[in-house]
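Late entry, evening session. Most of the bench is empty. Finally got around to the prediction I had been postponing all week. Sequence below, unchanged from the version circulated by S.P.
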Amino acid sequence: SGKIISPKAYQALGTKWITGPVGSGPFTWGTYLAGTSLTMPKNPNYWGTQPKIDEIEFHMAVDDRTASLAISKGEIDAFYIADPNIAITASKASDPKVKFMKAQYGTSPFNTWFNLKRPPLDDIRVRQALRYAIDSESIAKDLFGGLAQVINSYLPPFMFGYTDNVTKYEYDPDKAKSLLKAANVPSSWAPEMISQSILVISKQITEAIASFWSDVGIKIKNSSLEQGIITKRSAARDYDMYATYVTRIDPSQMTARFWRSDGSSNLSNYSGADALIDQITAESDPNKQKDLYAQLQQKLSDDSPASWTVAVSEHLLLNERVSGEQGAGWLERFNWFEVDVPAE
């Protein structure tokens, strides 16, 4: 995907364009204080329908714990919630001045990729054991208070092509232990799972997964890494497991890139579905394509190059005055150009 920007401005500003971009959207870049705030005035020359609000002002240092009170007082109009614990509390609050919104679009599957080039993960019994050892229902209920949804597919439930009619690995620690024993996995096996420390959701889910795997005798090393390190290790496929959630809006964006053998984000080094993925790419009939997506989800579930745990979503708190917003979407995108906030 890409964005339409001004070539003239980009050439003139060079690297400074990052902190003063010129684009073609409904809002323009205003005043920016790194890590603190950003203002974006309405673009008077916007080619489409003019936004209903005159300016957006972003604040980057609002405390999650006090956000609801700030919304209620009208000090801020909207707040994006990243912490699942805050989201659970906010979803149960009863302040009439505060609206809690779940994502209208953009629930994101949490993936734990298994590196098939790292024995014993090349053994399907080991990968299946790891899936049976995870209690996804508990994660959805206890970590997310029901705001997350258990999934068994690499596609999220809202997306075209999604099916739940696939092989499932419901929580069964005894079966997990049996499969590990059958695969002759040594008790000394100590795989490493890496994830992004910047993502609160990833930190909480990987801690839960690591606990479940420890329960079946796996000496898992759970490494929550800063972005620079994890980017390098991801590029080198230097891990046993890689865990994160994936946010996209179309199934094609989540397929070849992640599951074809030459995909740039094929974090499992998986190569078992190239022909099927090529069929999906070449198919123009939506009904046939939907069937092919179902076949792919079944094959991936059977081969288990990864574990899919829950689909998570982003959340918003809105002041009662705000209308037109549909809730956080893919990669924290918001529908600000259709939002209206009447003056008090």
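Two things to note before I forget:
The mean pLDDT is 91.
The radius of gyration is 22 Å.
Will write this up properly tomorrow.
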